[in-house]
Design brief:
mainly alpha; 3 strands; DNA-binding; WH-like_DNA-bd_sf; transcription; nucleus
Length: 430
DNA sequence: TCATTCATAAACATAT
DNA sequence: AATATGTTTATGAATG
């Protein structure tokens, strides 16, 4: 028996390596995924009290960070009603810098397939795309591939299948139109992908970024702060603030996740854990788990799970799991503001499938497979739910703040007790 | 030199 | 049956 023929058009191709562009070597400019996610210690850079008092009992930070948390968890709603479809060609690219697309119209895009796929998925309204639409998006954005040998589709599929960053999600049952599954970005690895994208020479690519969210916070929204204020905040940050704010962030994120979870009828149904178990990918982070190794992990032998960029996975996974990296990543990218006005208007931005996929999403919304698209800002039901969630968050935040105040009070008491004790012993010695 | 990442090709299985 | 999709293996280039 000979080799299987007629499988895909992929087969009747020349080796694309023949078309490699000089000066644009495969890895030279390519968006290689980072081995480590950039240091994800929460900088608590938002805490801007400007004071010098480093005592925990100085509760300015609490007030500030509580406001901040509200901005993070609730206030972001007002930023963008639609899904954050950022404009890859947006005005964020430095003047005089060509966009990758334009560069790649005749030459190979400076992104790895992983990043291309990631961008495609992130551009989709529902953050999930079938393979076909990933093809389409890439073709749409990178005309290079229209003339490139079709082997690139094989590479896309290969990446989807092999790469740990991507997850397969079932389409709705009983829905026969549309082959295959939907592909999503594993939230756990979003920071990695973002980090990789950030390393691209084209800063406009950053405009694609959706602020990474914790696994269950599906509605990723951009966070808008000016870089100037951010730097200022970073400048004033203090260690005590970091820890406190970190605690608050973690607390908040867990609360938020719970609240958001309540909104969702069912979690995403991840099809099958191929590279490793993704069963936890859409689960919550354990609340307030400050530990990097939370036990669940994680036998990541790069050889065991044969996939790309397996190294460094441990740390980044832990970081992202703890939600802390979300904050840091957000900080890294929150300057980028969505251009949602273009969504869907020209057919390329806010990519819509030409086939049934969107219909699929709609049905899934009501649906039977548990796949829930991101709530859109004008979704009344969603906003109502969010309001409820917000109230919950508010209440829990108050409780949390109360607890922290309580702790601070204890600390104050202890301090004063210590002082008294010292004074007494001093007296006693005299 | 070695390990790693990535691209590419290919074989094969399964679903539509 | 044809095609699309998904998985797996192999190989080689580039890089640190």
């Amino acid at each position: 028996m000979g080799p299987v023929t007629g499988m895909t058009p992929d087969k009747n191709i020349e080796s694309p390596t023949a078309e490699k562009v000089p000066g644009l070597s495969q890895t030279e400019n390519m968006g290689s995924l980072p081995e480590e996610v950039g240091a994800a210690r929460p900088k608590a850079s938002m805490v801007d009290n400007g004071a010098t008092d480093e005592e925990l009992t100085n509760l300015n930070w609490l007030h500030e960070s509580t406001n901040l948390l509200n901005n993070f968890s609730l206030g972001s709603e007002g930023v963008s009603a639609g899904s954050p479809l950022y404009d890859i060609e947006g005005d964020l690219s430095p003047s005089g810098c060509q966009t990758p697309e334009k560069l790649s119209a005749s030459s190979k895009p400076p992104y790895s397939f992983s990043l291309l796929i990631y961008m495609a998925i992130e551009h989709s309204p529902n953050k999930c795309l079938p393979v076909k639409d990933i093809y389409s998006w890439i073709l749409d954005r990178f005309p290079y591939f229209s003339t490139a040998p079709t082997g690139w589709k094989n590479s896309v599929r290969h990446n989807l299948s092999l790469n740990k960053y991507f997850q397969k999600v079932e389409r709705s049952h009983g829905k026969v139109n549309g082959k295959g599954s939907l592909w999503c970005v594993d939230p756990e690895y979003k920071p990695s992908l973002i980090q990789a994208l950030k390393k691209q020479p084209f800063s406009s690519a950053l405009a694609l970024y959706t602020p990474p969210t914790s696994p269950t916070s599906v509605s990723s929204r951009p966070y808008v702060l000016t870089s100037a204020s951010r730097r200022k905040q970073i400048h004033y940050v203090k260690d005590s603030d970091i820890d406190a704010a970190t605690a608050m962030m973690l607390l908040n994120s867990s609360i938020k996740e719970e609240a958001l979870d309540r909104q969702k009828p069912q979690p995403l149904k991840v099809v099958l854990p191929k590279k490793r178990s993704y069963a936890s990918a859409f689960k919550h982070c354990p609340p307030l788990s400050l530990q990097e190794n939370d036990g669940e992990v994680i036998n990541i032998d790069p050889k065991e799970d044969h996939n790309y960029s397996a190294s460094g996975g441990d740390s980044q996974r832990c970081e992202s799991r703890s939600s802390v990296s979300s904050l840091s990543s957000v900080e890294e990218v929150y300057e980028f503001i969505p251009k949602n006005s273009r969504t869907g208007s020209d057919g390329s931005e806010g990519f819509h499938s030409e086939d049934d996929t969107d219909i699929d999403y709609e049905e899934d919304t009501l649906g039977d497979n548990g796949y829930v698209p991101q709530p859109s800002g004008n979704d009344l039901h969603g906003s109502k739910l969010r309001k409820e969630a917000s109230q919950d968050i508010d209440e829990e935040l108050k409780e949390a703040a109360g607890s922290l105040l309580h702790l601070a009070g204890i600390r104050t008491c202890l301090d004063s007790l210590l002082k008294t004790a010292k004074a007494q012993s001093h007296k006693h010695r005299k």
